[in-house]
Specification:
mainly alpha, 85% helix, 0% strand, single chain
Length: 191
């Protein structure tokens, strides 16, 4: 029953396909792919907006390391711009920007909040916050990589290029965060 209901939710079931003209089945598949793409785009809009309004300001309040703080401040400005770019992606598709709850992002945030409450040493909290940011960047990069692939397959090169630019920004942020995490970890190990 699970496979049949899933098939119907993205177009037509296997039994319906044999009775459906090929043109209709292709259209239903394209419509389902577009709907999925818009959902995932909405999930990233949700995540970027939450980063800018909640998560990054929280991290900035928590961190004491100057390099980490500076990197997070830069990333906050970048994240605000990325949210605007995602809104533009919706517009390029002729759609109204629509957020969709991003459970993966919310899970990382909940995990951060649970653990951060128990950390007493400032240096350890800095390392933990940096590591949490690294995990978030990995999630974003995976999401943007999938969205770029989907946009290209849907024949939306301008949207794909826009999303690829955001992905490259996230990759650069990840590299900076990984360097900072190594420095923070080294300081704790020798301190």
């Amino acid at each position: 029953a699970g496979a049949d209901s899933r098939s119907r939710s993205v177009g037509s079931s296997r039994s319906d396909r044999s009775a459906t003209p090929r043109r209709y089945a292709m259209s239903a598949t394209a419509d389902a792919a577009r709907a999925l793409f818009l959902q995932e785009l909405g999930a990233m809009l949700y995540a970027e907006r939450r980063h800018a309004s909640d998560l990054l300001p929280l991290l900035l309040r928590e961190v004491g390391d100057g390099d980490l703080r500076s990197g997070l401040e830069q990333h906050l400005a970048q994240t605000r711009d990325q949210a605007k770019e995602l809104e533009r992606a919706f517009e390029l598709l002729g759609e109204r920007p629509r957020e969709r709850k991003n459970r993966a992002f919310d899970g990382l945030r909940a995990e951060h909040d649970t653990i951060a409450r128990r950390i007493r040493a400032d240096e350890v909290l800095d390392l933990f916050d940096c590591s949490a940011a690294v995990m978030t960047e990995h999630l974003e990069i995976a999401s943007y990589t999938a969205l770029v692939t989907m946009a290209r397959r849907m024949g939306e090169p301008e949207v794909a290029d826009l999303l690829d630019d955001i992905c490259r920004q996230e990759q650069a942020t990840l590299r900076r965060l990984e360097r900072t995490a190594k420095q923070l970890g080294g300081a704790i190990a020798t301190g």
